[in-house]
């Protein structure tokens, strides 16, 4: 794993810790920086990172705190406090 | 490539424990805390003193920082293969990352001249030259 991928991992952890401490803006800064590093190095963001961040406002999502997670027919809908929805499918 | 004293100037600085060893401004010498925000020219350090925390912005140029690297990174201080590559990517910066005085087990202190870190946070990791689109 090269430096860029590790940076993204560390930024993911930092964003999660900052969100847990209620430092929403700082978490957002880490999420944006991780996105920027991935973009500059042409890396795919880890799936957990994509599932736990808001595409439109870059917030780190904590289900129950600033995100709603609802199961619909065949897909999950994650609603951020900013109002944007993210959907992904599930089997079963 | 883990976070080693050699890779530190290219690696993520946010979250690392840091101490300001030397600064143009005497008031900033000795500040100790964690890096919380990095910009092109500054590091913001969160200093915790008995319960309350404050964030101090320290300019990179004119300061010398000492980062503490814990756990797995410390044992691989010997592999210096990346040093020459670092010198290529950031000419002008003085290589001062001396893996000096490892105090105790698993902690390495890396002293870095702030001018070596002058770069946009996301740009610092890249190894290519000025034009990455080739």
How would you describe what is shown here?
The complex is a heterodimer of chains A (92) and B (134). Chain A has three helices and three strands, in the order αααβββ. By secondary structure, chain A is an alpha+beta fold. Chain A has one domain (3-89). In chain A, helix 1 (3-20) packs antiparallel against helix 2. Chain B is mainly beta. In chain B, a hairpin with a 2-residue loop joins strand 3 and strand 4 (52-59). Chain A: Its EC number is 3.1.26.5. Chain A: Belongs to the eukaryotic/archaeal RNase P protein component 4 family.
Summarize the structure.
Chain A is of the alpha+beta class. Chain A has three helices and three strands; from the N terminus they run αααβββ. Chain B has 134 residues and is mainly β.
Secondary structure layout:
The complex is a heterodimer of chains A (92) and B (134).
Chain A: H1 3-20, H2 24-40, H3 47-51, E1 67-72, E2 75-80, E3 85-89
Antiparallel strand pairs in A: 1-2, 2-3
Helix pairs in contact in A: 1-2
Chain B: E1 17-23, E2 32-38, E3 42-49, E4 52-59, E5 63-69, H1 83-89, E6 98-100, E7 108-113
Antiparallel strand pairs in B: 1-2, 1-5, 2-3, 3-4, 5-7, 6-7
Please report the total strand number of chain A as a whole number: 3
Helix and strand string of chain B, N-terminal first? Answer: EEEEEHEE
Give the name of the CATH superfamily of chain B: Ribonuclease P/MRP, subunit p29
Order of helices and strands of chain A: HHHEEE
* Shape category of chain A: globular
**Quaternary state of the chains:** heterodimer
Shape of chain B: globular
What is the SS-derived class of chain A?
alpha+beta
Whole-number count of domains of chain A: 1
Major beta sheet summary of chain A: 3 strands, antiparallel
């Amino acid at each position: 794993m090269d430096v860029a991928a590790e940076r993204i991992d560390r930024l993911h952890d930092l964003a999660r810790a900052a969100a847990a401490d209620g430092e929403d803006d700082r978490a957002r800064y880490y999420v944006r920086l991780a996105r920027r590093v991935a973009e500059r190095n042409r890396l795919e963001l880890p799936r957990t990172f994509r599932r736990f961040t808001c595409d439109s406002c870059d917030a780190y999502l904590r289900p129950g705190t600033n995100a709603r997670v609802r199961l619909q027919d065949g897909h999950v809908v994650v609603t951020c406090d900013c109002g944007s929805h993210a959907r992904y499918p599930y089997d079963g | 490539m883990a976070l080693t004293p050699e890779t530190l100037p290219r690696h993520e600085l946010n979250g690392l424990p840091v101490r300001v060893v030397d600064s143009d401004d005497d008031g900033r010498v000795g500040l100790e805390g964690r890096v919380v925000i990095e910009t092109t020219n500054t590091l913001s350090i969160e200093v915790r003193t008995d319960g309350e925390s404050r964030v101090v912005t320290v300019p990179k140029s004119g300061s010398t920082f000492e980062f503490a690297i814990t756990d797995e990174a410390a044992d691989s201080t010997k592999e210096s293969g990346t040093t020459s590559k670092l010198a290529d990517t950031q000419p002008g910066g003085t290589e001062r990352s001396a893996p000096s005085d490892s105090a105790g087990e698993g902690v390495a202190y890396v002293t870095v001249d702030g001018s070596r870190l002058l770069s946009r946070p996301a740009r610092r990791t890249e190894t290519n030259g000025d034009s990455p689109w080739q």
